[in-house]
DNA sequence: CGATAACTGCGTCAAAAATCACAAAATCAG
DNA sequence: CTGATTTTGTGATTTTTGACGCAGTTATCG
């Protein structure tokens, strides 16, 4: 438990024993059943989730339809960055796509850990750099690629995603209708 | 000189005199003429720019056309986060839209300053949180809004941007053709 | 200041994708 | 195992947006 997080951290930046213990004290472990919500629209986000095992999605509710803004798998950090940092109600939700085990980092405890440990704050900065890079690339795919090309690009760069997430779910993530996505797929 | 940056920092997190001096030692000030490049596609990004005065854009070159991915004004930090962190050649460029004065933070010096000063690293983390929030919202506008709505949303939330940037430039930023944008505009 | 370039608007036409409708297939829950 | 629900595939049609062309206006730069 928390083992996955520990090895993930090693790939970013090593932490001293003290810092690792401090970080652990910010964490609660929890499992969610399939379709359970980690964060519900309207709530203020108080946590950062690290996925030990399983998969989640972030989504907006638009006229009763779920528009997916991101998918998250093992070794991903997940949160609603806007709600977390502004402490305003979240405008989107996070839902488990399958049985999912996460490490929950409490926001206030984490902020205290940032202050107490330069190492931990440095880790936080590096994770944010990765998340910003990923988000930037995703935005660019919308500006540089036509819908069909976005799908091809996804197939080329994240083929595994299509194995774990249904086409219906992927469609809104790519900003494409379900039917068009189905046609793109059969045309390959 | 660096005055704008100093007051901007106050709005994020105060720095001790020592940290502020250390941060200053990472900075070179420079002016760019209109249309001059701050970063050219293919180069490895070594800097973070803080705009003291003026305006810039980040853009990709697609079949000879400039696709704008972001606009930046006074008090904005600008960089190519992917190239900066991976030290791979940048796939996009940064260009001054008018005469622009920036503070250039050298990457290696800044990393050293992060290590030497917890305060500065904390500042860096907070800036990244803001940038990630902004980027996330921009991505969401592509998934949740139709082209026409994206334009309306921009008018509502950043009316000033349209005062400083031509419609032609805004079009690719919104992922819309110049002609469609012109039509949306006249239809309001 | 004057020539050149860039920007904007609008019309037509074509292409792409969305929508609607329905059937088949796969998956899930009891 | 089986009925119910979700997912997927496909056709017909409509809507939206893109592409091209051209004219008028505005900005820019030497």
Description:
The structure is a homodimer of 188-residue chains. The first copy, chain A, has 188 residues and is α+β, with helices and mostly antiparallel strands. Chain A has a domain at 3-118: Jelly Rolls (Sandwich), CATH 2.60.120.10. The first copy, chain A, is built from nine helices and eight strands. In chain A, the strands form two sheets. The first copy, chain A, has a four-stranded antiparallel sheet. In chain A, helix 4 crosses helix 5. The radius of gyration of chain A is 17 Å and the shape is globular. Chain A starts with a helix and ends with a helix. Chain B binds a DNA duplex (30 and 30 nucleotides) through helix 9.
Key attributes of the depicted protein:
homodimer, 188 residues, alpha+beta, Jelly Rolls, 9 helices, 51% helix, DNA-binding
Condensed summary:
With 188 residues, chain A is α+β, with helices and mostly antiparallel strands. Helices cover 51% and strands 23% of the residues of chain A. Chain A has a four-stranded antiparallel beta sheet. Chain A has a four-stranded antiparallel beta sheet with strand order 2-7-4-5.
Secondary structure elements and pairings:
The structure is a homodimer of 188-residue chains.
Chain A: H1 3-12, H2 17-24, E1 27-32, E2 37-39, E3 47-53, E4 56-62, E5 65-72, E6 77-78, H3 81-86, E7 93-96, E8 100-106, H4 107-116, H5 118-144, H6 147-157, H7 159-164, H8 167-174, H9 178-186
Antiparallel strand pairs in A: 1-8, 2-7, 3-6, 3-8, 4-5, 4-7
Helix pairs in contact in A: 4-5, 8-9
Chain B binds a DNA duplex (30 and 30 nucleotides) through α9.
